[in-house]
Amino acid sequence: MKQITVNTSQGYDIFINHGILFKCGETLSSILNTRTLAIITDDIVNSLYAETVINSLTSQGFKVCKFVFPNGENSKSISVLNEIYDFLCQNNITRTDCLIALGGGVVGDITGFAAATYLRGLDYVQIPTTLLSQIDSSVGGKTAVNLNCGKNLVGAFKQPRCVICDPDTLLTLNDEQLADGMAEAIKYGMIRDESLFELFENHDINNIMDCIDDVVYRCISIKKNVVEADEFDKGERMVLNFGHTLGHAIEKFYDYEISHGNAVAIGMCLITERAYRAGICEENVLDRLINCIKAYNLPYELNVSMVAIVNLCKSDKKRESDSINFVICDKIGHSIIKKVSINDFQSFIL
Ligand SMILES: NC(=O)c1ccc[n+]([C@@H]2O[C@H](COP(=O)([O-])OP(=O)(O)OC[C@H]3O[C@@H](n4cnc5c(N)ncnc54)[C@H](O)[C@@H]3O)[C@@H](O)[C@H]2O)c1
Ligand SMILES: [Zn+2]
User: Fold this and answer.
1) Taking a C-beta distance cutoff of 8 angstroms, is the pair 165, 129 a contact?
2) Are 83 and 69 a contacting pair, CB within 8 Å?
């Protein structure tokens, strides 16, 4: 068993182990005071893993109720959130009880936000089941739902009570879902850890599962360090946005028909190409990144006008009023946050 402690305002442990899902009841019985839990999950994860989790929890004396919603980003909505609130009410969940987010980032984000707001806040536990949610969204306490006019526009910081990560759950992901998570994993290597990046260079989509524990552990360790240094996203945490400034715009351009990981992969390559052109990084940084992206069946280029993409960056509702932040890797394993005017950003990209 590997364990990582995150020292944020409310500290918590992340437990990483094969088969830990079967023992989540034992893990939680030593951490939680309550014996009443509400599991929130989606239909796919429900059919794959809910029974295992519920059996383990009830064997330890937990009383469990469960809310299941349709899988997919469309469910990260105010209307599903409302259904969750009603469900918690109907099941008499109180402020001292605990929610369990069992699933990918969609389940984690909406459950975390429900936990941050229902009865002015109660505990929640993350049991992430996608690579993306294990290495990224389940750690760090960012929770949110989407509005019609944009993603993650209503949210809160709310750290989980603990995170239970079972790498065996990743065995049921398809190659596209695995690749999606790998885009974020490659991002961690690029911004902070050349030896992690080398691990990715020495594998590909067909054999990365052979060392997935190590990947999960090392990526979470990087996220932990960044989050501890800047829990509320005022400065250093922005390095996690490498590839995301353009990536978010690319997602919007395709009206979210492109996956987040695919958009981030392209975003990392485009910004690194600009960095190379501007003399900020060596050509081999770009070459190594593109080769690595290709090895995980991720896209690295875009055949649409960059003017449209830059315009979408400008209209990003979450950017600061007259400037834009973006991240550049000057060498593999090292990153710089740039804050520039919109005009300078535009000339850097176009
Ligand atoms: N809070 C944060 O810091 C943060 C960070 C990054 C991303 N996110 C959010 O995370 C979401 C994306 O997360 P995601 O990629 O996990 O998406 P997701 O939760 O939609 O999961 C992707 C698909 O995989 C299925 N699935 C989940 N676990 C599975 C398993 N073990 N086997 C087979 N199928 C499984 C789900 O049912 C879903 O259909 C986005 O909403 C994004 O905004 C949040
Ligand atoms: Zn991301």
Assistant:
1) no
2) yes
C-alpha 124/C-alpha 39 separation (Å) is: 10
Name the β-bridge partners of 14: 4, 163
CA nearest neighbour of 164 among 133, 122, 210: 133
- Is 177-349 assigned to CATH 2.115.10.20? no
Q: Where are the domains of the chain?
A: 2-172, 177-349
The per-residue pLDDT for range 145-172, each reduced to its tens digit, is: 999 988 999 999 999 999 999 999 999 9
Helix axes 175-192, 194-201, angle to 10 degrees: 150
Ligand number nearest CA of 109 is: 1
The list of the chain residues with pLDDT below 70 reads 318
Q: Tokens 């919603």 correspond to what residue? A: 69
Whether the model clears a pTM of 0.85, i.e. scores above it, the answer is yes
Tell me how far the alpha carbon of residue 103 lies from the centroid of ligand 1, in angstroms: 7
Strand (E) or helix (H) holding 276: helix 260-277
Rounded (10°) CA dihedral 151, 157, 163, 168: 10
CB atoms near residue 139 (< 10 Å): 29
> What single letter denotes the amino acid at residue 78?
I
Question: Which residue ranges have their beta carbon within 6 Å of ligand 1?
Answer: 42, 44-45, 48, 71-73, 76, 103-107, 109, 129-130, 132-133, 136-137, 140, 142, 152, 169, 172-173, 177, 180, 260
Distance of CA 46 from the midpoint of ligand 1 (Å): 14
At 244, which amino acid appears? H
Q: Tell the residue number behind the tokens 């910081």, with chain if given.
A: 157
Q: Among all ligands shown, which has an atom nearest to the Cα of 152?
A: 1
Q: Which of 6, 106, 126 to mutate to test the pocket of ligand 1 (most atoms within 8 A of CB)?
A: 106
Domain 2-172 listed as CATH 3.40.50.1970: yes
